[in-house]
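In the previous lecture we treated proteins in isolation. Real proteins rarely work alone, and many bind small molecules. This record shows how such a complex is specified: first the sequence, then the SMILES for magnesium ion.
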Amino acid sequence: MSLLDRLRDSSRPSRTSTAAPASGSASVDIDGVTMRFGDRNAAEDIHVDVRPGEIVSIVGPSGCGKTTLLRAVAGLISPAEGRVRVDGETVSTTPDGVAMVFQHFGLFPWKTAEANIAYPLRLRGLPREEIASRTRELIEMVGLSGFERSYPHQLSGGMQQRTGLARALAVRPRVLLMDEPFGALDAQTAEVLRFELLRMWEEHPITMLFVTHSIDEAVLFGDRVVVLKGRPGRVHEVIDVALPRPRDRAVAMSEEFVALRERVWSLVMSQDTHRTR
Ligand SMILES: Nc1ncnc2c1ncn2[C@@H]1O[C@H](COP(=O)(O)OP(=O)(O)OP(=O)(O)O)[C@@H](O)[C@H]1O
Ligand SMILES: [Mg+2]
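The predicted 3D structure, ligand included, written as tokens:
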């Protein structure tokens, strides 16, 4: 039994718990979504369809509305037009089993790593022992053993993002929203975490929307890469990534990988940089 399966098994809410069980992966349908702040659009007429267990990468210039779109999927803000559905249900508040990992980690500085990871479980009112055992497993899973009692400022960037990932996984997500999760890390740490996350995903494929500025990362993770263009962003092109899984280093060095990376790169570079920067 894989670590993620064990985690799911041991973390099933008890009968007294108020947390609704979430299981498996969910579909995400971003259907003609326009996001608007005041009288300005942040993204226009976006269509992205993600099947359960798929990873869809999203790339596009700064300010084209990527974070805003993820926030709409998380039910934190509502589209001005169109709708987002998770497993067919229109999103109005944060759907059960949807979790987000942020570029700047988004940890509570006054809480230890352990308390940050446990936070969503406390919010759900799980019994104390269940929170403790689930948190222990998460810490082991993301390789944070020995740093449970450290505060974020005492952790390296990589460890802080491991904490952010563990906190997102704590709710047994059916959809993981990744907002440039490795963007603030040094190249080497980012590389290590990328392959670790891919291994975790192989053990238990969770639906992922993966926003990144790294074209390599977009191709490495994605079943598809959605290239957004402009500000407000619109879908410019969707590239199918028919690379084999598991996506290991050998895949990342293959000719097919390089060809796809160049394709995405040329699409991104073909954009009107004066307008979009
Ligand atoms: N809460 C907000 N209020 C007003 N405008 C906002 C708000 N959040 C985002 N915007 C605007 O929406 C647009 C898209 O922002 P968003 O953060 O989604 O871009 P992004 O694609 O994630 O950029 P980056 O790659 O730099 O992270 C920007 O013009 C931004 O100023
Ligand atoms: Mg952003």
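Summary for your notes: The mean pLDDT is 89. The chain has ten helices and ten strands.
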